[in-house]
Amino acid sequence: MNTVDKTGLNLDPEGYLADPDSWTEETACALADLEGVSRECPLSKERMDILKFVRDYYKRFEAFPIIRAVCKNVGQAKTCQYEQFPDPITAWKIAGLPKPTPEVLAKIRH
Description:
mainly alpha, two-stranded antiparallel sheet, single chain
């Protein structure tokens, strides 16, 4: 069962965007605020680059990218993912992607 929260976002019970195709940069800002990551909008270019890369990677491979590869592909320091989004699941949520499977969760958290 999906709910519409106070920001008007249609979220599943665990806070994932119900329709990943409805994601916009403004949606990312609202999700970042809900996750306690940032109240600023627009998000920094560094954060937005990471989110866009994660979304694009997911669309192409239906998987979360190797965390070290994210920073390399967006031209940031190799610790960028941890600096911008200490929890990769938070980045996944803010990127508007569907809830990962238990297998994916285990790989991301490992």
